[in-house]
Write a structure and sequence with these properties.
By secondary structure, this protein is an alpha+beta fold. The protein has four helices and eight strands, in the order E-E-H-E-H-E-H-E-E-E-H-E.
């Protein structure tokens, strides 16, 4: 069964899932400062526009831009969840470490996507590369976790993306119109 995703006008997909057994087992090491369990995982996949296997100035620039975009979007979602009294944190795709909480164990976002969505991976020079069914290796994965149940995280993520819940001014590279989404795929949102 394929998960349901939400798509925005630029190539980005997101889905919300219960935590994998790995995340549940190691939650206290991933986020040692949290006093409650991880209840949901938000996966964000961005189309890179180029393969991300080989290191080049183009791929490194693309990774930097996609990382910045995720940190803006993920940060806005986490802030809204925290304002509602939930724990929430984004894991930096570059380091694998939480941004907002006490640093714990490294989280492999490629492994999280593989576990939640069943997407293939390949190893190149000790680095795991995600293989998206349509985008191939032109995909940039990222993860946010929360103590909120998946339906709450989905509602907040949808609201942030629909309303452009980010800075909407001349210094932002992201514009309000870029956040509209539509349903694609089939299956249930949370599996």
């Amino acid at each position: 069964m394929r998960p349901s995703f939400y798509s925005v006008s630029y190539p980005m997909l997101y889905s919300v899932h219960p935590p994998s057994p790995f995340i549940c087992r190691y939650a206290n090491q991933l986020l040692p400062g949290w006093s409650c369990p991880i209840a949901s995982v938000l996966i964000v996949l961005q189309h890179a526009g180029c393969g991300l296997v080989e290191r080049s100035p183009i791929t490194e620039t693309q990774k930097h831009l996609l990382r910045d975009r995720f940190l803006q979007i993920g940060g806005a979602i986490a802030a809204q969840l925290q304002a509602q009294g939930y724990h929430a944190d984004v894991f930096d795709p570059k380091t694998g470490l939480p941004i907002l909480s006490q640093t714990g164990r490294f989280m492999d976002d490629v492994a999280v996507v593989r576990d939640c969505l069943g997407y293939g991976t390949m190893e190149i020079d000790g680095c795991s590369i995600l293989i998206h069914p349509e985008w191939g290796n032109s995909v940039y994965p990222a993860v946010l976790v929360s103590s909120a149940v998946p339906t709450v995280v989905e509602r907040v993520a949808s609201r942030v993306i629909d309303t452009g819940g980010l800075i909407d001014n001349s210094t932002s590279r992201l514009r309000r119109s870029e956040y509209h989404h539509s349903f694609i795929g089939c299956g249930s949102l949370t599996q």
